[in-house]
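Repro case for the chain-ordering regression, as requested:
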Amino acid sequence: MNFEMITAAANRIKGHARITPMLTSPFLDDIAGRQVLIKAECLQHTGSFKFRGAWSAVSALTDNTLKTGVIAYSSGNHAQGVAMAAAKHGAPAVIIMPADAPRMKIDNTRALGAEVILYDRENEDRDALGTQIASERGLTLIRPYDEPQVVAGQGTTGLEIATQAAELGVTKADVMVCCGGGGLTSGIALALAETAPNMRVRPAEPQGFDDVTRSLVSGQIERNAMMGGSICDAIVTPQPGDLTFPILKDHCGPGVVVTDDECLRAMAHAFARLKIVVEPGGAAALAAALFHPDQFDGDAVIAVITGGNVDPAQFARALETL
Amino acid sequence: MNFEMITAAANRIKGHARITPMLTSPFLDDIAGRQVLIKAECLQHTGSFKFRGAWSAVSALTDNTLKTGVIAYSSGNHAQGVAMAAAKHGAPAVIIMPADAPRMKIDNTRALGAEVILYDRENEDRDALGTQIASERGLTLIRPYDEPQVVAGQGTTGLEIATQAAELGVTKADVMVCCGGGGLTSGIALALAETAPNMRVRPAEPQGFDDVTRSLVSGQIERNAMMGGSICDAIVTPQPGDLTFPILKDHCGPGVVVTDDECLRAMAHAFARLKIVVEPGGAAALAAALFHPDQFDGDAVIAVITGGNVDPAQFARALETL
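-- result from build under test --
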């Protein structure tokens, strides 16, 4: 896993993934007490950054492998990313999703042409299930973060952040990333280490699911006690990845832990000030920037909004916090 | 009013206005029965395209004129655009707004540093009021559409549409624009006439406020019977402008009239599929593309989303249509 894999992924992705905008608002700067730049990956195809890693991984497969098909497990965003990337490559896709995933994510994954298999998030091991079905059907498993080509694809977000921040005059900042298994966070960290060395990447996580934050403190992989109970479904993962954690350990600053309520409020501010739709787990980084100013000391913070796949009822609940 | 004024405005705006993204979704293509490209001007500074025209007009003023200050009347989007453009130029701004404008638009205009004066939309003439206060206080009046530098600024949207559509392989399409007084519609029409001659600009208007559509049919300026009663506040204007109508007449195809309910449903689809926040009047063009397929005959339609300044309660109402 290295920087060259990210630039190679950027070449494969070019013209397929969207270059998402970097947004700003004087109203958000006022709340945070410093300049806030928002990388709006909710505007990526399929509504999350996951399309980047999925395209990177699928486009790296041979024609024969594509013909047989791919399989992925995902709470919903990697699911949609892989489903669309596979469909555009003419490859069949099977996606294993938790039965309690947001309705919209399950429906979209099916509508993008994938076969969806539901599992029980609390009692079944999705990796074991994925490995088993992959082997039975001869499919290629594309893991959501412990897969080098996926991390390389997510890292292309970092290349854009470096360029877009520099255009806005920002070359030194903490870069908050909503963090589940660490695929995006490690990819951005690798990209920025080369292209914007004065940026420091830091994970944002929901209370009770702060495995990466605690792992960075202890220096070894820590697990979460629970696997459900947060509205931030997109970034609830059991522990940092075996591939991603060494990268996070080498490159990242301390994590910031946010509450579900802070995520809802961040969603509402993104609605009012940026005109973007953000899902709870995609709002953690912005929540950290807006509501934990004491955890930062620089003049600028960059918050990566990771996804926007939220059910209308959940979104309406966020708007009620305004 | 000519194309060179638009390229000159583009030079003054560069680095100040945002290049907004052109979005797509296979789900929206399915509904419309053809390819739909969405120019997301709700992601512009202050949440609408109006910032372009405001910056263009304010940046064309002399230092002495700026020092005295500017005045504008607006249902809310031109208000915020002028307020922010004036503030960034260090110029005082007075904005005349209807007392029934969305709360968020009034609050934001004040928060951006402008003095807000409220008037009665049904019974007062905002142009007379603006002219009077401008003369009393020595302020420069920046009209929302009957002002060449404003039209030139809005026309920069057209330059971006030509480039971005071509990148997506689209050079021939109907371009639906949410239309009030016609500033944006005429600016885009002038820009595309030079840069993408196979594009045809057409206005989208709310039922009961289809003055431009009727004017294009009769060949002369027609007025609306009412001045209130649509949720599409941003594009409810009494009649096409004296400056804009001759341009519209020369360049535009027939208008498409949409209902308030169709606008709410288009807002909901933009939420679900594009992850953007759209106000009712900003959704008229997308509503036309999605729900009036019989009014188009080409393979592609471009819908310009003009603004996203919507109160949370109104937005929640739109989500209920999903």
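Ordering looks correct now. The first strand of chain B starts at residue 22 and ends at 23.
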